């Protein structure tokens, strides 16, 4: 039988959820208004480190509309466990207790010290001004190396150190490769040893919708609405943190306006709201302002990377050594300590290194904590390896693309086990690169670059390359367990077949803008042969979607989507004996296609809708068959997903002003089988914008007292569409061999690949001025200084946030 139904998978469907999102006919957490609801406002410390001598709330309590004013000492007895950290990366890791509100000491500027409960939000915020806090300032420690220096002020005196943990991977010790010290010694004799230091600046996730939560304690369950990426994790952690019975907690994530990792946390404010709602017996709402987001929501990145690469004179790489310092901020986030560890497995990237050593030291400073931000460790690793591959090419006098091609894994070598111990299941770096070079006109741009350089043109042209892969789809639970991660990597889905043949898909992957409702509908439409319009996707409510591990790490499709596929297969397995019974034939004589079971070689058939009604009526079912087609699946992947791609950037640099203009940007990504090309394109475009923004625009900067000087969008520079080029995108396809869809993750690919492509392009444009690095972001001021004075004046030797050119970051970025 030949199907006449066009497949849904691969179709560029417009997202079904967009109509309500774009028109505003939806519900965000801050839209909620419950009977008798009270509003919360948090007073935050202006100091990065200080003892709290006293807090006088007398005047605030008598302010109009105020119901209560609470301090940390009021809440601490009910929350003695402190805020959770789910990733203790070593047994010796130091994990200071983070209170819901500080009661004795504040450790970063923006830490909450008191909360006002009032009848309106305006009244709550007005009353904050009436709270009088007496602080005794303490010495502040900022900067990774400063924090580790002998005699440095301590963020947490009781720990006796600012060092949080040290995590090491060594290929010789792990049995995945040879000894990197031997590689260095051999290269010193007859090859090349190249060392570079790179800086990953601190970033703010800058999601569109500020964080918010509403807690209603008045029913049989405590119900929390939250603008979160992780409703299931939030439910479990709320119960564990506050000692609540988990079955009495329900968490709902309504439509959520972006996250980028910034809404993966379990927040002090969510715990605070829960305690206050229970104490008062009334619903309460907390919604942060944008300025609160900048100082109190977690930050991302913030690393110093010291890399040593060794190679033979012909360009064959022989070893890689990575020594990393990572800023945790003042406390530990939910998965913050493990973020650099995710990068540990990606510094080797697509290359065949025989020897590899990675060591990461996590450090406390008096700043907002850091945690997952789009890519979470993988962008940092890709930046480091792609930058130093460019530097190695210069040392060898090779074209940087030629060097990469010489050392990458060839398509016929897959599956390939890397020096970091991961097995890449599939890929074709040659195909993606070949297509990207064609779209980019690589050879033509190299000729133009030479002409400009020879003529002394004040506007120089640079070409940047980033050939990358990433591990995504957090992934086998046993592997995560071996890394001491508290949770698993599985995902859950259910399919309900309604009496009229309509379908409800329940997924544990909670979307915050990715298009799950559309993609899941396309998958199920093909699997069950029902119309796309007849499928409803339900998510984000721990009561209706009772089981899940949520959305982050490009895991939704390659883990959650596969659970949907498997659940659909189970529906068909349940339907088959019923179809055989209704058509009075053997199951072996049946085939299923386009929504119908047919008897082979005949015109006899019955649709999935007919079977759904037969199950509902239950008048004529086989003996011993339950009247239900509903099915569920919990999928635990056997491996990570490994998308890859080649990104090429042409940048024009005005050497007289330092201005950078991206002339063209080409990326060819391989994300396996594509369910919806329109969604993939949107994910790539958004990812590119964020990666380019790190290269050129964004940086969270503190002054020497620990105050965030880039606390508004007037100072923290986000690009608009006018600041970005029109992207040229393409795809190649090597299906994943570890899941039935053949899909690979896409949500973080653009961010991971684009930052080094842009920086490599700018450095390439001005290298003949003695520049081998410019610290990000590449503001006009930094680029201009580099052209005038070389890398040392451009932050390229590892100056830290708050030092060096930090004082002119905002000015330079605004030019």
**CATH first level of the largest domain: which class?**
Alpha Beta
What are the low-pLDDT stretches, counting only 5+ consecutive residues below 50? Answer: 796-815
Biggest beta sheet summary: 7 strands, mixed
Distance between the termini: 65 Å
> How many domains comprise the coordinates?
3
- CATH-scheme architecture of the largest domain: 2-Layer Sandwich
Per the CATH scheme, the topology name of the largest domain is Aldehyde Oxidoreductase, domain 4
> How many strands appear in the DSSP assignment?
28
- Gross geometry: globular
* Mean pLDDT across residues: 94
Biggest sheet strand order reads: 3-5-1-12-9-10-11
Tell me the β content: 15-25%
Primary descriptors:
Aldehyde Oxidoreductase, domain 4, 815 residues, 30% helix, 3 domains, five-stranded mixed β-sheet, seven-stranded mixed β-sheet, globular, 28 strands, alpha+beta
Protein model, in words:
GO terms for molecular function: iron ion binding; oxidoreductase activity. It comes from Amycolatopsis azurea DSM 43854. By secondary structure, this protein is α+β, with helices and mostly antiparallel strands. The protein folds into 3 domains: 17-24 and 490-635, Aldehyde oxidase/xanthine dehydrogenase, molybdopterin binding domain (Aldehyde Oxidoreductase, domain 4, 2-Layer Sandwich), CATH 3.30.365; 32-138 and 208-258 and 263-296, Aldehyde oxidase/xanthine dehydrogenase, a/b hammerhead (Aldehyde Oxidoreductase, domain 3, Alpha-Beta Complex); 300-474 and 639-789, 2-Layer Sandwich (Aldehyde Oxidoreductase, domain 4). 30% of the residues lie in helices and 22% in strands. It contains 23 helices and 28 strands. A 7-stranded mixed β-sheet has the order 3-5-1-12-9-10-11. Helix 12 packs across helix 13 and helix 12 (378-396) runs parallel beside helix 21 (749-766). The protein is globular and about 85 Å long. It starts with 17 loop residues before the first helix and ends with a helix. Residues 796-815 have low confidence and may be disordered.
